[in-house]
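Obj.: predict assembly geometry.
Materials: sequence records (below).
Method: joint structure prediction, all chains together.
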Amino acid sequence: MNLAHVRIVGSGLIGSSIGLALRTHGIEVTMIDSDQRSQAIAQDLMGMVPSTKEVDLVVIATPLSQYEVVIESEYQRNLNSSFIDIGSVKVKAKVEALASIGDLSTFLPSHPMAGREVGGAESARADLFEDRIWVYDSAGVNEKTTQLGLELISLCGATALEMESAAHDQAVALISHLPQAISSLLAAQLQGAPSSTMELAGAGLRDTTRIAASSPALWREILTSNSAALKPLLAQFASDLQVLIEGLDEPEVVHELMAAGNRGRAAIPGKHGGSARSYTYLPVVIEDKPGQLAALFDEAAAASVNVEDLTIEHSPEQFTGLITLALSADDAATLHQHLRDKGWRVHAPR
Amino acid sequence: MNLAHVRIVGSGLIGSSIGLALRTHGIEVTMIDSDQRSQAIAQDLMGMVPSTKEVDLVVIATPLSQYEVVIESEYQRNLNSSFIDIGSVKVKAKVEALASIGDLSTFLPSHPMAGREVGGAESARADLFEDRIWVYDSAGVNEKTTQLGLELISLCGATALEMESAAHDQAVALISHLPQAISSLLAAQLQGAPSSTMELAGAGLRDTTRIAASSPALWREILTSNSAALKPLLAQFASDLQVLIEGLDEPEVVHELMAAGNRGRAAIPGKHGGSARSYTYLPVVIEDKPGQLAALFDEAAAASVNVEDLTIEHSPEQFTGLITLALSADDAATLHQHLRDKGWRVHAPR
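Observations (raw structure tokens):
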């Protein structure tokens, strides 16, 4: 354990959450933000006092557009420190660091896979990174800096994963930036639709457009900074879309697209990593009032089954809800019988 | 109440669910399917005995591709009956009915907004339509047929909504068929991605591709049958996508797309109809083991707050979970204080 004093530049969600996590381990944190109010909130959250210790590690947690100015000034101020950044695009981070510092030996590019739709110090949580993957790229980075970075990742409760920066940028372009762009484009099509149309919207539309509520200011930077990796993916999507448009009257063309979607969807790992787990789903109709969910989960506990996931589907205009519980096949059979015996409106698992 | 004997042709999810709903009201149901096994399951589910009463209403619940043959033969067999269909595309249904029957006076086109990702009689539920919107188009339909159709909708517990067929097809093209096509195209891009990439996937990718797991056979028919309404929407999406591709290095272009996505997303109504309700979100970290959710909902009940919705977010590789509860602002404040007092790992509402 070598970290004693960490300087965090940028008091947004990620920077502040790192600060909170380090504080729970008793490490001194100096929180810096160009916005005085944000800095005050973050410092208040962490109950900090000015440190007299030398800074071991500087965390660059600002928007990518500020990297050039911030890295330059932080490097001049902390010539003997190591540096780590947490930006969403790693090739760009390396380029900026190289321009400001001259070499990358004291700069560890990294990226915690733990964003949220909300931002700011007030949304920060010490446990934001718990059990999340945290990618880092130690190519050309000296041993001391790499070890300090890994210590920070470990103290945040994350799982460090070494990945080359260009490979990281390719990966997030596919699993994060492409879905964001497509979801935003899809939601944009809803603008101006009559309310009589929107009233027919169901869970499918809601799910596909959830992330379209994300911050334009944040995503503008991410998408433009990773345009080299993202553009070919958007172009391939556009090409496939053109095939669909031209073949929309041909059942075989549409079928093949849908089947390709099935295959791609099946490639997404499920809970707890590994390949997608298949659950058995148990539908239960409940009244939509306080205590009903509690009573349902009491039954699950009484039957000693583990609810792996659940969805709540509300019916329009009426206050009833359909709860679909995801369980193992055995647990679903057990709970189905248990709930039936207790008089619940439970339907057959599937 | 005039329905005494309803004949349902097609024992899939919708047809069988209608049958179950009618049976709970004591109405005689004859269930027909070209597939003998499906018909047997459906009849068994409903505990039916052969009816001697004349058929009041024939429900066409087959795939659209079978309409031509089925409507023709059902019309010849039940010359004095009324007809209703439940297909996803209404203009096509009218065209087929007109060709088979000669006029639309005894044929009510309708569409219950209650699909699921699973199909078949074994997934049928008597409450599938409870509190759902059920669109119908009575233009040119005689009074008796319209009343019988409305009675069926009412007995299924749905809310009848009159809508012109072309307007319906336009509406579902936007809120259902476009999201389905785009989600499938998005998921298709994941094919062949390395597992090291897929392991970084988060909730955003999962949500945007959930409906890409839907049945190709079912959706092939829906998309091709509504291609006239869907094609211009796909073309507009393609045009907007092209703007993004060409402007991907320009922050203003990307910002405007994201902002348009924000606006479109905000147009989706929330729970219980009406415009989208804004909830306050309360994050709680729990251990992922039986009884934890029950204990949490017990606390919500003890605090007399109404949980409007929730999401469960699992951390990879470790068995902890983040529950985000959606509540009214007042309830969120109440429950936050309550859970803190009880020692839960609850974070500030936002």
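Conclusions so far: Chain A touches chain B through 132 residues (CB under 8 Å).
To do: check interface contacts against the pulldown list.
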